[in-house]
Automatic annotation (TrEMBL):
Native source species: Leptosia nina
Superkingdom per UniProt: Eukaryota
Source lineage: Eukaryota, Metazoa, Ecdysozoa, Arthropoda, Hexapoda
UniProt domain Aminopeptidase P N-terminal: residue ranges: 71-211
Cofactor: Mn(2+)
UniProt record similarity statement: Belongs to the peptidase M24B family.
Gene Ontology biological-process annotations: proteolysis
Protein name stated in the entry: Aminopeptidase P N-terminal domain-containing protein
Length: 507
């Protein structure tokens, strides 16, 4: 994390010089001692060069005793234990439970040209394993209290390793991932068939829709010939994933901090005539130099009325002096994601009408964060609150007419902000997608709060001076027993602070 020091002094001097709110910019440090980590001496990280970074080969990334940054072998093991006990409890008429969670396979942009590999979040959450096409299998029979964990990985192969780099291999994988047994991936099909056909009253837990790994999907489907019942483990798994452990909270703080500073840097580099592409590059550069692997998603960098297209990612226009610029971007660090939106004037000075709209969205956002702490509502209710607040404030400013009833007002507000105001955040940007947004938020969930307003250039239902602008303000928020903790709170969002730093950095 020392790399942030390359970026931080410039940014720190800008923030200190021009804003009142940033007295101290902390430097990132590797996570050394996450709270509540159990130290289990018998779990050891094998020595030697393996298929992924370890505390021995990459001490600048992973502290001694951890499997991945900030997370121990024990924590991964406990997650597997929790999942198995919850699944067995959910379907207790079956005698045998076989759980299959595949890793992602490599993706190619064209022949033999790979994309950067991204592990399947469910698989990573349960193993910490970064190897493509590895497979986790857990078997619980009724005659034993414990269950057996088998990890299928690509075994050592000097020819393949010449091209692709070192593999962990079966013998080191057993110790590294603290599983009972590791086998070569080629054995998986036979193993599954044999297991399912030899055991009575078996239920196969496998995510059958939109399979994470099409290569093994047919193998798993074929094993169903042996009269096993099929159930999806994802709903239970996502209910676990949506509540973050202390170590995960620390990782989320880091990725949110990097994302926040990178948006600040993008703001500082903005000036009339610069391209959306350049601003996008500043964001990405700052993230990566600060310890993020890459962006969390293709960023939206949208000037003027282009910001009214919610998923504008072309980012190929030049920024005009009178435009507002909307950024929706985030980064990934150790697979944990941040997701931030900010909107600022290209010129560094809000026009009176842009300022009215911006302060209105900011007021809605702050009110929604307060509500999360006070009422802990389901995220769907938060969306209802947003429409009501947005409608009310727009009416107060004379942007929506006074003579319409509440229902119509909420409908008009909804048309001006058609996207949801919140989603869960973590290993996936839209995290734990099987967890409904109808359940109340709970302590240690991390959610976004992202109200917006999008007024098209040809929208004749609002006064002309407010048309052709899109504004969104998005923070990442940890639900606590008290007031929510805004993990992206070092990202500038007050009008005076934005005006103080836009354009202060030359590139
Ligand atoms: Mn978001």
């Amino acid at each position: 994390m020392n790399n942030l020091k390359l970026i931080a002094p410039t940014l720190q001097s800008i923030l200190l010089k021009y804003t009142s709110r940033f007295k101290v910019i902390r430097h990132l440090s590797s996570i050394k001692n996450p709270p509540d980590v159990k130290y289990i001496p018998e779990l050891k990280i094998p020595q030697g060069v393996l298929g992924q970074p370890t505390c021995h080969t990459h001490p600048h990334l992973i502290s001694t005793g951890y499997l991945t940054c900030g997370i121990t072998q024990m924590e991964y093991k406990e997650r597997r234990e929790t999942l198995v006990s919850k699944l067995v409890e959910a379907e207790n008429v079956h005698k045998t439970h076989v759980i299959v969670i595949p890793g992602s396979r490599k993706q190619y942009m064209s022949d033999k040209i790979p994309y950067v590999f991204r592990q399947n979040s469910d698989f990573f959450y349960l193993t910490g394993c970064l190897e493509p096409s590895a497979i986790l299998v857990m078997i619980k029979t009724e005659d034993r209290d414990s269950f057996k964990t088998i990890l299928f990985v690509h075994d050592k192969d000097s020819h393949a390793e010449l091209w692709e780099g070192p593999r962990t291999g079966c013998s080191a994988a057993t110790a590294l991932f603290s599983v009972d047994e590791s086998q070569p991936v080629e054995n998986f099909g036979n193993f599954l068939n044999r297991t399912i056909s030899s055991l009575k009253s078996t239920i196969l837990w496998y995510h059958n829709e939109s399979p994470a790994n099409p290569d093994i999907h047919d193998t798993v489907r074929a094993s169903l010939r042996h009269h096993a019942a099929l159930e999806d483990p994802q709903r239970v798994l996502h209910l676990m994933r949506v509540i973050k452990s202390p170590a995960e909270v620390e990782l989320m703080k880091e990725t949110c901090y990097i994302g926040s500073q990178s948006v600040n840097m993008a703001m500082a580099c903005t000036k009339p005539g610069i391209s959306e592409h350049a601003i996008s590059s500043v964001f990405e550069y700052t993230c990566r130099m600060s310890g993020a692997e890459h962006g969390a998603f293709p960023p939206v960098v949208a000037g003027g009325s282009r910001a009214t297209h919610i998923h504008y990612v072309s980012n190929n226009q030049l920024l005009d002096n009178g435009d507002m610029l909307l950024i929706d971007a985030g980064c990934q660090r150790w697979l944990y994601n941040s997701d931030i939106s900010r909107t600022w004037p290209v010129s560094g000075k809000f026009s009176p009408h842009h300022k009215i709209l911006y302060e209105l969205v900011l007021a809605v956002q702050k009110r929604l964060i307060d509500l999360l702490g006070q009422q802990r509502p389901p995220l769907d209710h938060l969306f209802d609150h947003m429409c009501r607040l947005l409608g009310m404030y727009l009416q107060q400013e004379g942007i929506l007419p006074k003579n319409i009833d509440t229902n119509e007002l909420i409908g008009r507000a909804y048309r001006l902000c058609p996207h949801h105001v919140s989603h869960y955040l973590g290993l996936d940007v839209h995290d734990s997608p099987l967890v409904r947004r109808r359940i109340p938020v709970a302590t240690n969930m991390i959610v976004t709060v992202e109200p917006g307003i999008y007024i098209r250039a040809d929208d004749t239902t609002v006064p002309p001076e407010f048309r052709g602008v899109g504004i969104r303000i998005e923070d990442d928020v940890l639900i606590t027993d008290g007031h929510p903790l805004i993990l992206t709170d070092t990202c500038v969002k007050e009008v005076q602070d934005i005006e103080a730093i836009v354009g202060r950095q030359n590139i």
